[in-house]
Amino acid sequence: MEQNNKEESKQVNNPLHGVRLIDMLEYLVKEYGWNSLGAKINIRSFNNNPSMNSSLKFLRKTDWARKKVEDLYIRTKEREEFK
């Protein structure tokens, strides 16, 4: 029980808690479009014949790329809050 409380308190400050990868990617594509997203994060699945499925497959396997998407998502959401 104590373990659960510690994990929950860590998640309170995690801006990605409860956000699925597909939701992040859909949001970023809506905000930037594939071309701008590919310019911001240079990965093949964003730049060559982009699709949601191929991008999700790549991001699930590739930690460094997923981290870049997560960071861009957080920055974009933070900017949105200050508008």
Please summarize what this structure is.
The protein has helices at 2-12, 21-40, 44-47, 52-61, 63-81.
Write the layout of secondary structure elements.
Layout: H1 2-12, H2 21-40, H3 44-47, H4 52-61, H5 63-81
Helix pairs in contact: 2-4, 2-5, 4-5
Written description of the protein model:
The chain has helices at about 1-10, 20-40, 45, 50-60, 65-80. With about 80 residues, the protein is mainly α. α2 crosses α4 and α4 crosses α5 (about 65-80). The radius of gyration is 15 Å and the shape is globular. It comes from Belliella alkalica.
Descriptive labels:
83 residues, mainly alpha, globular, DNA-binding_VF530-like, SAP_dom_sf, VF530 family protein
Question: In this structure, how is the largest beta sheet organized?
Answer: none
Any idea what the radius of gyration is? 15 Å
Q: How far is it from the N-terminal to the C-terminal residue, by CA?
A: 40 Å
Uncertain segments:
none
Number of helices: 5
**H and E order:** HHHHH
The SS-based structural class is mainly alpha
As a percent range, the share of strand residues is under 5%
Tell the overall outline: globular
Mean pLDDT: 89
How many beta-strand runs? Answer: 0
Helix percent reads over 70%
